[in-house]
Amino acid sequence: MAGRIPQEFLDQLLARADLVEIVNARVPLRRAGHEFMACCPFHAEKTPSFSVSPRKQFYHCFGCGAHGNAIGFLMAYERLEFLDAVEELARPLGLELPQHAAGEQGASIKPLLHWLAQAERFYRQQLREHPLRQRAVEYLRQRGLTGQIAGAFGIGYAPPGWDALAQTLREAGAPTEELLAAGLISRDEQGRARDRFRDRIVFPIRDRRGRVIGFGGRALDGETTPKYLNSPETPVFHKGSELYGLYQARTHGAAPQRLVVVEGYMDVVALAQHEVWYAVATLGTATTAEHIERLFRAVGDVVFCFDGDRAGRAAAWRALDSTLPFLRDGREARFLFLPEGEDPDSLIRAEGREAFERRLAQATPLADYLFSELGARTDANTLAGRARLAELARPLLQKLPDGHFRELMEARLRQEAHVTNTRLRPPPAHSISPADHNLPLTRTPLRKAIALLLYRPELAQLPPQFELIRHDDGELGVKVLAELIALLRVNPNLNTAALLERYRDTREGAILERLAAWQPEVSEQEYQFEQEFRDIIAALERRGDLRERLPDMLLQRGSPRALSLEEREAVRNLGKAQKV
User: Fold this and answer.
1) pTM for this one?
2) Concatenated DSSP letters for 305-363?
3) Which CATH superfamily is domain 111-237 in?
4) What is the Cα–Cα distance from 91 to 74, expressed in whole angstroms?
5) What are phi and psi of 341, to 5 degrees?
């Protein structure tokens, strides 16, 4: 995502933003020496361990390990996506997001969004004025919807006929190819342009900013197939990542504390009619990882609401499987299975809001649902059945991120399977990097040099002997250090936050963020930053020289045993800084 915004804009944004001010507006800070401290907003604690550095423009929690720059803080605290966080940060600074060629902000999609907005206006007008609108109005009334709710969701009517919308938009200047690209029309077998939605109730689908990106249409004639029809995949609409109703849930009143995932448009609208504004629906697809990520960016509590039949339970199990990798500590997923023959629309009309919300409160936690389903497939009264339970659960629990919830799930499995130990962590050691967990990074000289540079970027401007760093020998850490030095020499005004932003969503970036939390062992006034940095760089240079000279040295000596004690020690240390 960061690649869709010019790096120069992000550098300017992070140079002008004040992280202390941004955090303090949301979490009261108190000064502690050169830093500011608070109780962490990302986990429960009584003693402040959340530190904000004005120098680095970087925050770090010594309790839960949360860290990042101003963009990262807004993403985590406000549950915003990257682009939204950038806009939120830029707005009070008077910075306007630049236009660029690629991605969602590209000029190429502007016409599509324009014609989609015009189509929504057309459909809403038809619901008010078309001679055949009464069929649509009666259908909505039968479902218990008021004009106010229909207006809140922008519900409209696509009239019968082949090209009512296409003709209207072409008269407004819309090229046929742009209407095709927006998914508003299609071509028949003879190549003629036809409206995609005809004689249907139309539900606009909005993105996180409220822009119309597609439509869903519900047939009024019982013989028309398909009953529900969505816009096709387009440059602005991707079914596997969008959630109907999420925009309304996030913008109606206070921010929701939970989201309920239901199966259809009418379920979302009907629940809103009864003041349950926190329902969303997938768009005719199974719940995807993109859906889950978007849900948990908005709230920490998600309830999946499905029919209790076989199809509903199959859909629920797929949702569970997609959810597991996102269940960090503090997030919760639950499952509500409805009585046979009921859906959220019919149930809330029959029972009312309070009864429906009681059902939500009693929804089955993911852990209970998972072990209940696996238990039904095995016989816990036999050794073979318990072994089978452990075998079925292992790949599922391995999807969970490290944390207390995973530990508790592993303990639950040991309890359910009646075993004292289960081998739930088989990934080979070489696949685990220091960034995969919250254990402290071993402080090697190379990591310390990078940490010093992140603490004081001006160290990169020291005399030119640092040009000698060899970064073509395959060592990732040396390459990163050399990249940082070169970057800071070209851009001497970059601060730590801007440096880290350039490595967002990379393995190196995850480690750099942890190194950015480093603090000097003594007071800043006493610490010899320049001398320490010079000494480490000099040692790296000597190691590079030794690596080049080693083959000749061995040839001259005839055997490694002929090396001096100092040379042997240097050879042993050659591989110690292979990783960042």
Assistant:
1) 0.67
2) EEESSHHHHHHHHHHHHHHGGG--TT-EEEEEEEPTT--HHHHHHHH-HHHHHHHHHTP
3) DNA primase, catalytic core, N-terminal domain (3.90.980.10)
4) 13
5) 85, 0
Three-state DSSP at 280 gives strand
Domain 378-426 falls in which CATH fold? Pheromone ER-1 (1.20.50)
Write down the CATH superfamily of domain 2-93. Zinc finger, CHC2-typedomain (3.90.580.10)
**Chain-centroid distance, C-alpha 378:** 35
Q: For residues 89-95, give the mean pLDDT.
A: 87
Which CATH number, 1.10.860.10, 3.90.580.10, 1.10.3720.10, 3.30.980.10, labels domain 435-577? 1.10.860.10
Sign of torsion over alpha carbons 92, 96, 101, 107? positive
| DSSP-assigned letter for residue 24 | H
Q: Two tokens at 536? A: 């480490």
pLDDT digits (tens, 9 = 90+) for 278-303: 999 998 888 999 899 889 888 889 99
Please give the Cα distance from 271 to 249 (Å, whole number): 11
Residue indicated by tokens 């393995």: 507
Residue 500 burial (CB < 10 Å; 0-12/13-18/19+)? Answer: buried
List alpha helices for 435-579, DSSP H: 445-455, 476-490, 496-501, 507-515, 529-557, 565-572
The C-alpha torsion from 369 through 43 and 423 to 421, rounded to 10°, is -80
Tell me which range, 265-269, 471-475, 527-531, 562-566, is most confidently predicted by mean pLDDT.
265-269
Which residue ranges make up each domain of the chain?
2-93, 111-237, 378-426, 435-577
